[in-house]
Request: fold
Amino acid sequence: MAFLILHLNEPGRQASKVALAIEHIVSVREIADDAGTEIKMSDGTIINVTEPYSVIINDLTQFGVKVATANSTR
Reply:
């Protein structure tokens, strides 16, 4: 099972990292300019990370993963 290591974007908390199992990622959505990216997991959990949308999509593409992408809120 492949994992992505991402930095959580938790307002008011110290930056931390999380490993997400790629097979459980359902969708990836850019939430706003420089505000990070929202990732929806198969269990319905939504995780906000600081990595740019394009970086995450490129990483997933390298693994050959296709995810449902929602429209940006820009």
Remarks:
- The chain has a mean pLDDT of 82.
- Residues 53-62 form the longest helix (10 residues).
- The helical segments are 53-62.
